[in-house]
Structure formats: structure tokens, C-alpha cells
Amino acid sequence: MKMSEGLHERRALKLSIAVTFLLAVVGIFFGLLSGSLAIVFDGMFNMVDTVMSVLALFVTRLLTSKGSRRFQYGYWHVEPMVLVLNGSILILLCTYALVNAIGSLMSGGHELNFDWAFAFALLVFFLSTGMYFYLIKENRNIKSEFLRLDIQSWLMSALISSSLLIAFGVAALLDGGAYGYFTPYIDPLILAILSACLIFIPMGAVRDAMRDIFRMAPLGLDEKIREFLDELTRQRGFKAYTSYVAKIGRAQFIEIHIVLPKGYPITSIDTLDEIRNEIAEAIGEDTPERWLTIAFTANENWI
């Protein structure tokens, strides 16, 4: 990652952390004041997000630093581990909220102050929507997984608040009318629907991060490299080759071994470097996150 991109990423994360913490504190306060389980859930969701964003900020500093004698390939492996932890906690939080909501519905629901609830939902909606579009703009060039997950969190927050606005508005209209008996069920019903829907968003992030942790080859890149090497082998008369691809966080690790037939014409080391350059250009733009190794041998036992 370029230093300037790292600075932009950390600045965006710091702003996101500050706004998220503010909403977490205000959300828990308004939730208790209004008696809304859905708002308390939103506040707790934001509090967890704040803690994980602080951890993400620490990891981004590691990613822009050089490796050490112990971590000679850098700290790319830390990123998917944090993403799994973040997503897993959000999944547990959604599951807990869903169970509580079902329990509240079965016990007859509860009354709440719709004025306080509506005011909070309106505040969160505007802040969440603003942060969502701001982070999309910041991440357009950086392409940070942390910012992408943060963008998803703000989208989730905006969806929660917009749903709360609609539900609390409808509940306020029903309150005191012929359908007033239904208002105690509004809050737990909203919470049940939101938690059941939102649980799938962190699941996607956890799935992708687990692929990185287990070093599963990205199929698109693997097929691209193999197709090119098949053609290059036919053109240049190579005997055989092997290729290995892994993606860990933002880093790509590509290892290629080419078996040359005996007597293959090599006038100088420049001949091999020319082949390396051809392969590197075919793979795509060279970035600090890409580790490319291309080795040549005449003995198939080395591959």
C-alpha cells in the first residue's frame, strides 16, 4: 500500500470511529430513555463497530510498515483475522437481538416513547447516510477491505434508522386509535426483522476473510495465469511449469516454476529476465502488495 493511501485510509477510519462512538453513546441513551430495544440494539451495534474500527486502525498502521525479522512477508495475514473477528461479533450480536425480539413478541411486546425514538432515528439516518457516501468516495482509489466493511456497517446503520423512522412514524399514527393495541409489538417486530436480515451482511465478509486465512487460490487470477503460461509454454518451447497463487488480505503471492528443456538457448541472464517481464506484464499492474517469484530449472525434481 502506498503511504498516501494509508494516510487517507487512517483519516477516514478515525472520522468513522468518532461518529460511530457518538452514535453508540447517544443510541444507548435514547434507547433506554424511549424504552426501545431496537434503538438499544443499534447503539450496541455501533459500540461493537467502534471497538473493531479502532483495531482496524491499528492494523492499517501495520500494513503500511515494513516487515520484521519475524514477519518477513509483512503483516498482511492480520487483516483477514480482524475481519473474521469483526464479522463474527456482529453475527453473534444479530443472533442475540433476534432471540430477544422473539421473546419480547411472545410476551406481549412493550410500550415506548415514540417522540424520543423518532428523533433519534432521524439523527442516525442523516449521519449514517452521510458517512456511507463519504467512505465510498474515499475508498474508490484505496480499495481497502477495512473501509469496505465499514461502508457496509454504515449502510446497515442507515437501513436500520430508515426502518425505524417508518415504523415509529406508523406506530405514532396508530397509537390511541382503533389499532393502538398493536403498538407494543412494533419495536420488537422491527428488531426481529432487522437482525434477521442484517446477519447475512457480516456473513459475507467472514466468508471472504476465511478464504484468505486458508490461503484459497483466487480462481480468476489462477485461471488467468495458467491460460497465459499454457500459451507461453507452446510459444517458447518450455518443457513444463507449475504455478501457485494465494491471496492473504490485500497481498497476492504468486510463485511460478518453469522447466526448460536441455540445451534451451540462454545467451545471458537477460533472456530469463525478459521472460519474467513478459509474465509480470501479463499478470497485471505491479503493486507493493504483489509478491511474484519466477524460477527456472532444467530438473523437474525442483518443481
From TrEMBL:
Q: What is this protein called?
A: Putative cation efflux protein
Listed under GO cellular component are: plasma membrane
Which GO BP terms sit in this record? intracellular zinc ion homeostasis
Q: Does the keyword Hydrolase apply?
A: no
Q: Name one GO molecular function term.
A: ferrous iron transmembrane transporter activity
NCBIfam families xref list: CDF
Q: Where does it primarily localize? A: membrane
- Give a Pfam family name: Cation_efflux
Which family would the database say this protein is a member of? Belongs to the cation diffusion facilitator (CDF) transporter (TC 2.A.4) family. FieF subfamily.
Q: Where in the cell is it found?
A: Membrane
State the membrane topology: Multi-pass membrane protein
Q: Which InterPro entries match?
A: Cation_efflux, Cation_efflux_TM, Cation_efflux_TMD_sf, CDF_Transporter
Membrane-spanning regions, if any? 12-33, 39-60, 81-102, 114-134, 154-174, 186-206
Key words, A-Z: Ion transport, Iron, Iron transport, Membrane, Transmembrane, Transmembrane helix, Transport, Zinc, Zinc transport
* UniProt keyword Nuclease, yes or no: no
- Residue ranges of the Cation efflux protein transmembrane domain? 13-213
User: Entry's Gene3D superfamilies?
Assistant: Cation efflux protein transmembrane domain
